[in-house]
């Protein structure tokens, strides 16, 4: 029982804001790269932030992606040339996605990467809305290539460009795909133009299974940087499909992530296998992706889709 004296005493109130946590320090893997304050990109590159991330869940699937500017672009005042976009097709509860890596030799590849992703996601949503049971990935790639041609026409003040001119301005790699919920386990279908990569991560065994050929895998005798990116679309684009079980995660990344990952049997592979055992926050994925390791200074983009298990985020 409280007394009048008790009631007259001032009560300690709970703090309105929790004490700040220690700021995240950049993760070092092996020998770190040089540390420096990032320089601003060109004054008209404000549409391409240094770091970008997104994340959300459907009843069946959980998505995260992040894209960070590499040390080389941070030092030389160049914009991030990677991009990623994803959307849910509400009628089917499917996730469509696109990941692109602008080719460094193209003068405005950052625009090409973003617009190729936007065009590809739009086209896949349209195809799913037309009750297509299977996506026509070549049509998706052609639609993205046409978007690049339209960009070039505007840049050239209405003049019809040669294919080489489009490539010189906006060339980009592209991986597109869809993950559909299914009682037997979600199914993923993917297609790629050029050399960006996708994997299935077995979270129970910490093993990466590539869905496309890798230029850095253990069976690769010679590393090549040659790619044939958009606006070129092959007659038969590379295609992959896989069923995901509850211990799997689908990973799609640009070569800024794929190169240090290698075949997954590395410190980078162990780092991501540990942190991707369950869905993490989008901001933490971006922080993780911005690890420091000497010689690896390219932009990095990673998109991850987990079968939804209701596990709490970190």
Shape: globular
Number of domains: 1
CATH second-level architecture:
4-Layer Sandwich
Order of helices and strands: HEEHEEHHHEEEEEEHHHE
What spatial order of strands do you see in the largest sheet?
A: 1-2-11-10-7-8
Name the structural class.
Answer: alpha+beta
**Mean pLDDT, all residues:** 91
Distance between the termini: 43 Å
Total number of beta strands: 11
- What is the CATH topology classification name? Phosphatase 2c, domain 1
SS element count, helices? 8
What is the radius of gyration computed over CA atoms, rounded to a whole number of angstroms?
22 Å
CATH H-tier superfamily:
PPM-type phosphatase domain
What does this structure look like?
The protein has 314 residues and is an alpha+beta fold. It has one domain (49-305): PPM-type phosphatase domain (Phosphatase 2c, domain 1). Helices cover 26% and strands 24% of the residues. The strands form two sheets. A six-stranded antiparallel β-sheet has the order 1-2-11-10-7-8. A hairpin with a 4-residue loop joins strand 3 (82-89) and strand 4. The longest helix has 21 residues, at 109-129. The radius of gyration is 22 Å and the shape is globular. The relative contact order is 0.18. Mean pLDDT is 91; it is low at 217-224.
Blueprint (SSEs and pairs):
Elements: H1 4-8, E1 51-57, E2 61-68, H2 71-75, E3 82-89, E4 94-101, H3 109-129, H4 137-155, H5 163-170, E5 174-180, E6 187-193, E7 197-202, E8 207-210, E9 238-243, E10 248-253, H6 255-261, H7 267-275, H8 282-289, E11 300-307
Antiparallel strand pairs: 1-2, 2-11, 3-4, 4-5, 5-6, 6-9, 7-8, 7-10, 10-11
Helix pairs in contact: 3-4, 4-5
